[in-house]
Amino acid sequence: MDPKFTIYVAFGEGQIIDGEPILPMLTKFGHLVESAVKPFRFLIS
To answer: Residue 14 and residue 19: Cα distance in Å, rounded?
Structure first.
């Protein structure tokens, strides 16, 4: 027998992203930052 457990870490209650799992939300934030910075990439390259 090989039991497997899945644990989801989520943001706490009372936050803007109440109860959302951290990893998918960080991926969304990464895409958001990338799309916000992309128009200015010529300034940093």
So the answer is: 9
